[in-house]
């Protein structure tokens, strides 16, 4: 009975690949599959939707509380990969436990951090802290690192495969006078952002330029993700059981 219900669920589930999407190996492979995005971020959803991919949204319950004290120096760049791995595995295992006859074909997760001088920048504690962060970034640079993890089922134990990638983008801030920094702080936009700024929002006027993928700074390195997936498909490493 469970198998029949799961089969019906899959038949009635809307295709994650939109009509008119690009004819890409990645999208062709994912068409008709159960694709999960383990994130509630509207920005990540928009980036994936730009190529016609509309995954099922099931946010992870992982608390993202890995001790940042263990990720200092060069290890800071490993933090988003570790976090995205925990997020993807939590969602994958939860869905398998809920219905082993209707497991996800692939779970995608991501985590983005801002790093300055090999130290992870948290979200500002308050407007004063936001101003402090922006003053440190002003006329300087930081690096935005996103870790992306996919989990998909395989026949070998433990029954799933975890694969990850990371992307790094340099963000260069202009030499902004204090009143411009204060105007941004007063907007309140940066209070809920790691590093205290959002490049796709009002902070764009503070930034002189970037080196790397803009989408990565927003929250999802689309080009690297697609290239990564296409390589797995070409090497026949991404199969659905």
From TrEMBL:
Q: Where is the signal peptide?
A: none
Tell me a Gene Ontology molecular-function term this record carries: nucleoside triphosphate diphosphatase activity
Cofactor(s) the record lists: a divalent metal cation
Q: Does the keyword 4Fe-4S apply?
A: no
Q: Which UniProt keywords apply?
A: Hydrolase
Q: Which HAMAP family does the entry link to?
A: Maf
Q: Which domain of life is it from?
A: Eukaryota
| Pfam families membership | Maf
Q: What is this protein called?
A: Maf-like protein
SUPFAM superfamilies, sorted: ITPase-like (SSF52972)
């Amino acid at each position: 009975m469970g198998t029949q219900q799961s089969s019906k669920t899959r038949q009635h589930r809307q295709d994650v690949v939109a009509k008119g999407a690009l004819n890409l190996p990645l999208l062709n492979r994912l068409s008709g599959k159960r694709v999960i995005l383990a994130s509630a971020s509207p920005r990540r959803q928009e980036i994936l939707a730009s190529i016609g991919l509309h995954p099922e949204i099931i946010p992870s319950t992982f608390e993202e509380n890995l001790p940042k004290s263990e990720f200092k120096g060069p290890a800071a760049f490993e933090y988003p990969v570790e976090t995205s791995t925990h997020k993807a595995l939590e969602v994958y295992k939860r869905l398998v436990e809920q219905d082993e006859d209707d497991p996800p074909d692939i779970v995608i997760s991501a985590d983005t951090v801002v790093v300055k001088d090999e130290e992870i920048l948290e979200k500002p504690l308050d407007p004063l802290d936001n101003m402090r962060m922006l003053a440190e970034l002003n006329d300087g640079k930081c690096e935005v690192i996103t870790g992306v993890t996919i989990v998909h089922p395989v026949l070998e134990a433990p029954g799933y495969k975890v694969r990850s990638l990371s992307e790094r983008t340099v963000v260069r801030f202009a030499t902004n006078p204090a009143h411009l920094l204060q105007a941004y702080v007063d907007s309140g936009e940066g209070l809920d952002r790691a590093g205290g700024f959002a490049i796709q929002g009002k902070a764009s006027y503070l930034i002189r330029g970037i080196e790397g993928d803009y989408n990565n700074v927003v929250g999802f390195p689309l080009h690297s993700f697609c290239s990564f997936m296409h390589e797995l498909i070409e090497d026949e490493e991404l199969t659905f059981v």
